Amino acid sequence: MKTGEEEGASRRPIASRSSSWAIGMSAWLAHNGATPNGISLLSVVFAGIGAALILLTAHPIAMVCAAISVQLRLVCNLLDGMVAIEGGKKTKCGPIYNEFPDRIADSLFLVAAGYACGLGWLGWLSALLAALTAYIRVFGGSVGLPQDFSGIMAKQRRMAVLTAGLLAQSLETPISASRWSLIFASVIIAAGSLVTCITRTIRLNRSLERS
Asked: Which long-range contacts (CB under 8 A, 24 or more apart) does 183-187 make?
C-alpha cells in the first residue's frame, strides 16, 4: 500500500485537478458508481473515435470533432485518478489501467495523424517516442525515484499540440488539399518527445548518481 507521499510522487501534477468542475464531476461519478478503471478505458474509446475521424475524412467539422475527442480523452485521464484517490475507489490493478490505456490512446491519435498527412512513418515515430517518455518516467519510479513528469512534450503538451494541429487543419482544408497543419503538429510532437526523452534520461541518471 502506497503512502500519501508516495502517491503524490507518482501522480502527474495537473492544475485543473483543483478546479470546481473537476471536483464536482469526480464526486458525482464516484457517487453514481463509476469506476476509475472504466473511466480509463473510456479514454481509449474517445481516442478511437478521434483517430477514425482523422483517418476517414478531412472534413473541417470532423477535424473539430477529433480535437474535441482529444480533450475528452484528457478529461478521462484527469477524472480517473480523482475518482480513484479522492473518491476512494483505488484498486490493486489501478496502475495498469492508469498506464496502458494512455499508451493506446496516444498511439491511436498520433499514428492516425501520421497516416492522415501521408507520412505514416512520422505517426509511428511520434507514437514510439511518446511511449518512451512514459517508459523513462515509469522506470524512474521502479528504481525508487519520484516519477518525472517534466519535459517540453509531456502528455498534456502533446495533446495540446495535436489539438491545435487539428483545429488549424479544419481551417486549412476548405482552402487547400494540403495537410501542412497535421504535418507540422506531428513533427513538433516527435521532435519534442525526443527532447523530452533525452532530458528525462539525463535527470534520471543524475538522480541515481546522487542517491
From this structure: 183/117, 183/119, 183/122, 185/113, 185/161, 186/110, 186/113, 186/114, 186/117, 186/119, 186/122, 186/123, 186/126, 187/122
Q: Distances from the Cα of 74 to the Cαs of 14, 106, 182, in angstroms? A: 11, 11, 19
**Rg of the Cα atoms in the chain:** 18
In order along its 211 residues, the chain shows pLDDT tens digits of 343 444 445 667 777 787 888 889 888 998 888 899 999 999 999 999 999 999 998 899 999 999 999 999 999 999 998 998 887 888 888 889 989 999 999 999 999 999 999 999 999 999 999 999 999 999 999 999 999 999 999 999 999 999 999 999 999 999 998 999 999 999 999 999 999 999 999 999 999 999 8
* DSSP letters for 171-202: HHTTT-S--HHHHHHHHHHHHHHHHHHHHHHH
Query: Which grid cell sits at 72?
Result: 475528452
Write down the pTM of the prediction. 0.90
Please, what are the domains in the chain?
A: 14-210 (1.20.120.1760)
Rounded CA separation 16/20 (Å): 9
Q: Enumerate residues 6+ apart whose C-beta is below 8 A from 175.
A: none
